[in-house]
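Standup notes
- HV: blocked on the assembly model, inputs below
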Amino acid sequence: MSAVLANALNPMGSPAAGVVIDCRLDKIFYGDFLAVRDSHVPIQKGQITGFIGPSGCGKSTVLRSLNRMNDLVRGFRFDGHVHFHGQDVYGANVDPVVVRRYIGMVFQQPNPFAMSIYDNVAFGLKLNRFKGDMDERVEKALRKAAIWDEVKDKLKNSGLSLSGGQQQRLCIARAIATEPSVVLMDEPCSALDPIATRKIEELMLELKTKYTIALVTHNMQQATRVADKTAFFSVDISKGGRTGYLVELGDTRQIFEDPREELTKQYISGEFS
Amino acid sequence: MNMFEQARSADSVSGPPSKGDYFFDRAFQWLAKAFAWAILAVVAALLLEVGSKAIPAIKDYHIGFLTSTTWDANKDQFGILPEIWGTLYSSFLALIIAGFFGVMMAIFLTQDFLPPRLAAIFRIIVELLAAIPSVVYGLWGIFVVIPAIRPLANWLNETFGMIPFFSTSLSGPGMLPAALVLAIMVLPTIAAVSQDALRLVPYRIKEAAYGLGATRWEAILRVMLPTASTGIFGALVLGFGRALGETMALAMLVGNSNQISLSLFSPANTLAALLALNFPEAGETEVKVLMYAALVLMLITLAVNVAGTAIMTMTNKQAGGGR
């Protein structure tokens, strides 16, 4: 069902204009465990694509397949493909390290390194052997992440000395310092209080003018506030396992106001979570 | 007695702990406290015993004992500078070797280079090194290590003799074989504690490094090791402390010769070896002098551990508490 919908949005599987990541994951396994099936999610350029659904529905797994973070998990394999600007991310001669340098990531828990605020942001720049004005790039990234004013006088302090919300914005600065074309965000606000969450959401809207964003969120309201497209995932427990799959994908407004699927309707009306 | 009796419904089983429960609770607390204090008492008793027996020697030989280089029981001349030097030098050499290999091993065993099961087997093998008796290491050193390194040592001495480290030939026991065997003996400690330190680095930190496009080497060198550095430093301090006090293998391998030399191939002596070898035949005066030497060894080990802990606490504070 979901495959049909994805195809309807993206006929013949030919990447429509504006699709940065063409993600067609037919099956994702961890060892013998089928974690996700039939999830085709094209990520549109310059938009925020939100992934929503109950826990265990595979939304994070799908997100982490896009920049090959799942390669770190033993036993991960999948059927299907992920194309980034037309290139196969999982191609035989593609190094996952290179993929992750173009597709940045922000994680659920703020995870700054135990080094100074400055060094945290400069980390990716140094990895890429950036030779230009480091100070300028660090400042730019911190400004874009809306945290510059709070840290400009203590760049030498440890990144761990900041509050949770500040740490997460620092991690966003770290991810965008190298100007990747896509930023994946895996429940970036789940560990944060409402005020910090609001700041990060404003930041996402700000960032999408320059970057493409894929956002996993457990919070439906967050999807309505920031996402242009929304993908709703659910869990299929019919065959004894717990397999996540894409139920419906569409414009956020359509998903929340006029869902095509009964399951989507039940979920957004709060009948299950 | 129970103030909440009226809160109790007919079917409720809620109630206060019994007198017996309280008794065991108190008894357990008391026992734990007693054991904690007992450890302190044992350490204090040891220091007091050794210290009091050393007092006559301290009165006779003063601080000059630490800077004199002769040990002649017949003339009642005693000094332990060569032993202090030998203890620190051998431990330092062992620390460099074991530190390098121990940390490498910890990286290899914790950073997904091996399937988990194989890594567990390797870990057990490394830990088995700690179960081999010291005297066996000594014998192995005499019969295997010394013959094995002698050709290379003598070649280095002939070719690079002007470098202080190679300025003597290796005739048998000496600093290098002692340090090599000592390194193997402290390796399990350093490897095990470094592994713990690396394993304590949260998974999300590792993810962050890989997520930014770090290669495995970059992630380990720039993120994992710095994050675990306090713990790894602790491993090195522990290893150094163990090396300082190691006795039997060193007594067999170090050469027991009172000289101060930078040469890796020269025989030397350590405090622990001095104590082990001289006690059996020591006269009344010499026993007191040896007690003085034992006190010095204990104080060196104590100082190393205190300094190590202090440095760790300081760096931990700088890192913003570590969490």
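- HV (later): unblocked. Residues 139 and 252 of chain B are 8 Å apart (CA to CA). Residues 17-55 of chain B form one domain.
- Next: hand off to the docking folks.
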